[in-house]
Amino acid sequence: MADIRFRTGCFISRREFLALGAGIGVAAAFRGAPASAAAGPILTRAIPRTGERLPVVGLGTAIVFDIGDDAARRAERRAVIQTMLEGGGRVIDTAPSYGTAEVVVGDLLAAAGTRDKVFLATKVRAAGREVATAEMQGSLQRLRSDKLDLMQIHNPGSDAGATAAQLGLLREWKDKGVFRYIGVTHFQAGANERLIELMRREKLDFVQVNYSMAERSVEQRLLAAAAETGTAVLINLPFARGKLFSAVRGQPVPAWAAEFEAASWGQFFLKYVLAHEAVTCVIPGTDKAEYMLDNLNAGRGRLPDAAMRRKMTEFLDSLR
Question: Which of 2, 159, 182, 263 shows the smallest number of beta carbons within 10 Å?
Answer without folding.
Answer: 159
